[in-house]
Amino acid sequence: MTYNWNVYKLFKNGRRAKAPFHVFEYNDPNSVGEYFDAKVKENFTEKIRRSKLLVLRSDLPQQRAADMSEEGEKLIKKNRNRVFRKFLKSLDKPNFPPGTVVGGLIFCRQSEWKWQWAALESGTSRYLAGISPGFTSYEAAQVWMIEEIENL
User: Fold this and answer.
1) Could you tell me if 143 and 124 are in contact, meaning their C-beta atoms sit under 8 angstroms apart?
2) What are φ and ψ of residue 54, in 5° steps?
3) What sign for the dihedral angle of Cα 17, 19, 23, 26?
């Protein structure tokens, strides 16, 4: 199956352009990066080739993070906090004083150098207790959180 791919320019501030400046077709999602670098990018000007570029499949959502509504972000944070509260209540450790614990995704020695949702000390982000299993990728940890939110 052949997919259309959109190419966006990434700016120095981390945001991306609103509209793609180039579209191309390619059939293998696993090797599109190599194909883009070898075949498509060579047709761009030197200035564009030096820029940071982002390639997204055109049939998937193209929404920029900056376009996410503030209400959507608040809902995600609220649901994550609900998941954290649920798991903090189930820990065998003594209750933490209110306002001293926050939840977050961390990659550190205490999580055995894996991505883990954890209870962290507010202000210092010191690891207090793991809430999720450890994950080898950031994306897998995000999927776990989404599944936990759906289970609430």
Assistant:
1) no
2) -125, 130
3) positive
Cβ neighbours of 128 (radius 10 Å): 19
Token pair 């001293």 in the structure block, residue: 100
Spatial contact of 111 and 92, defined as CB atoms under 8 Å apart: no
Contacts of 46-51 with CB under 8 Å at 24 or more apart are: 48/9, 48/21, 51/9, 51/10
Q: Cα–Cα distance between 117 and 150 in angstroms, integer? A: 16
Q: Give per-residue pLDDT as tens, 95-151.
A: 777 778 888 999 999 999 999 999 899 889 999 888 999 999 998 898 899 888 888
Residue where the block lists tokens 């929404």: 63
For 124, the 3-state DSSP assignment is: coil
Cα separation, 25 vs 36, whole angstroms: 10
Gap between the Cα atoms of 102 and 16, Å rounded: 30
- Ordered by start, the domain boundaries in the chain are 3-66, 69-151
Q: How far apart are CA 121 and CA 95, in angstroms?
A: 13
What are 112's two structure tokens? Answer: 């055995």
